[in-house]
Amino acid sequence: MNLIECDGLTKRYGNTLALDNVTLALPAGEPIALIGPNGAGKTTLLSLLCGFVQASGGSVSVLGESPGSQSLCGKLAALPQDALMDPRLSVGRQLRFYAQLQGMNRAESRLEVERVLEQVDLLDSMNTKPADLSHGMRKRISIAQSLLGSPSLVLLDEPTAGIDPPNAKMIRDLIREQSSNTTFLVSSHNLDELERLCGLVVYLEKGRLISVGPVTDDDRHDFVTLRLGSVAENDFIAAATQIPGVSGVTKTAQGDYLIETDNDMLTSAILMQLLHEKGWRYRQMTRGKSLEERLYG
Amino acid sequence: MLPHYEQRNFFAMRLIALAQDELLRLLSTRRGMVSLIGFLLIWIAVLNYGILPAAAFFVGASDSGLTELLLPRLGLEAWRQWPAPELAVFWVISLYLLPFFALLASADQTASDRSRGTLRYLVLRCSRTEIFLGRFLGQLVVMTLVVLITLVSVLIVIMLYSPDLLSAAVARSPVIVVNLLLLVMPYIALMAWVSVMARSARQATMYAFILWISVSLLVGYLQAKFGPMPLLDWALPGSQVSQLVRLSDWQTLSYAPIPLVHTLIFLVLGGFMMRQRDL
Predict the structure, then answer these.
(1) What pLDDT is attached to residue A230?
(2) Is the ipTM, as predicted for this complex, more than 0.90?
(3) Which of A51, A87, A150 sits opposite B3 (nearest CB)?
């Protein structure tokens, strides 16, 4: 069964068309990336799935139910963008209340809140009010609330936005750990992060669904992406184009090159040898195009 | 192995949890406690400078025969039917004071939670109707506490000054509690409705004020244009108060349908809007 099914899903805010006739089906399993530029409709899609807003047209089902259905209680969770908990009440008290609304009794809710706070490394903040926490800590608390009761599907709207690198890594690790039992749909602008985390990518632009597909293009063998240290651009391009099978070398960003070839494995091996001989240091080499290059290159 | 929690999807259970949370929010936040203490201080002043002197005045006036002249003019003929003058004055003062407190205390049922985004966390766990009704019930519980506290304070005064009247006053207390709760219910329901439209408690209070003035003007206009229309006299919450002042004991319940109908209308309107609004 598909976790999420949308058929002709449309959402208008006044005269603005935020989501335009989106049809897609997303399966359970690896985390799913939801990407697109600002105003693409990512948050609108997540809000529709959560039942925060109502569709202007089309249909949507989550875990076989309509958004907002009581059957989804405890099965669907989310980190809504910009949503804040009550600043006047302690984190633990609010999370216990949420857990009780999900059907847990007092003892169960206490244990469950301790479990999720421990997962985001904020057990010490149990009795702290959200207003007294940093932005990053509040975000982690919000992620903890989305893990209450181990739901089947968690929708995360920009979970690492505004978060420092160590905490962003902690959130990514947490998603990885939980993804054996829970399917995550993660909206983010950080394509590197999503590339490492997700198996499937949903790409929206101006409210329209542009593509749904795997994050990596393993089936293609015609590109190598290379990130070099400080190497003269002309020297590298001149040397790389001499490699047998290479039909083009393009600089995509400072130090980043996209090499078009007829055999990515062979080219990678020769490239390594070339770099070794020239004493050029590389930072990263990957087969195929990066997600960014595939979407915007 | 994942922890497993039985899905206890009971409407009543979540409604009680939400109402309980509303009460705890009042008692565990500084703002809630300040409101409560503020009200208690006002009430002590009302008790000391309002109820006690007024009760003493009517007792004195009764002794001198002045009440026979004065009370009918004030529409307070029924005061004699109350077992203690303090209770009679409390009844009249509460009829006019409690609605204002109910309006102010229950203004923020869902407004700030919506603007902050907290409602999004809640709707993932319970229905919008449950949130709407749970918050309404919570405010009703808060007002029940307020009614009980004020009533107990008056009973204490009666115990101190007229102990022989206490048992009769206690026996009459349920009438007062039921009536005052019926009185405040539509005000809480009205604030539940306008709170759905507002983004803060202040805005909700303003909406209620605008609504109140608009309906009053409309009723006045319609009656001026088309002549007296008795049904329109009951259009606003609290329109039965002028009649209740003249009554005592369980006969006061003869006007109970009015606040109940008001409450029902506001809850239906508010519940509908709560389900429709984007969060």
Answers:
(1) 83
(2) no
(3) A150
Position of tokens 């007092």? A106
Question: Coil, strand or helix: which one is A81?
Answer: coil
User: Rounded to an integer, what distance in angstroms lies between the CA atom of residue A211 and that of residue A291?
Assistant: 12
* Domain with A239 in it: 223-296
Substitution target from A44, A50, A52 for chain B, most B beta carbons within 10 A: A52
Q: pLDDT category, B65, cuts 50, 70, 90?
A: low
Same domain, A275 and A178: no
Place of tokens 């949420």: A98
The pTM is what?
Answer: 0.85
- Judge if A111 and A20 occupy the same domain: yes
A143 and A289 inside one domain: no
Q: How far is B25 from chain A (nearest CA, A)?
A: 8
- A156 and A291 fall within a common domain: no
Cβ-based contacts of A95 with chain B (< 8 Å): none
The partner residue sitting opposite A98, judged by closest CB among B29, B31, B125, is B125
Task: Measure CB to CB from residue A73 to each of B29, B125, B278 and give the nearest one.
Answer: B125
Tokens 């590109």 belong to residue: A223
- Shared-domain flag, residues A26 and A163: yes
Strands A256-261 and A246-253, bridge-based pairing = antiparallel
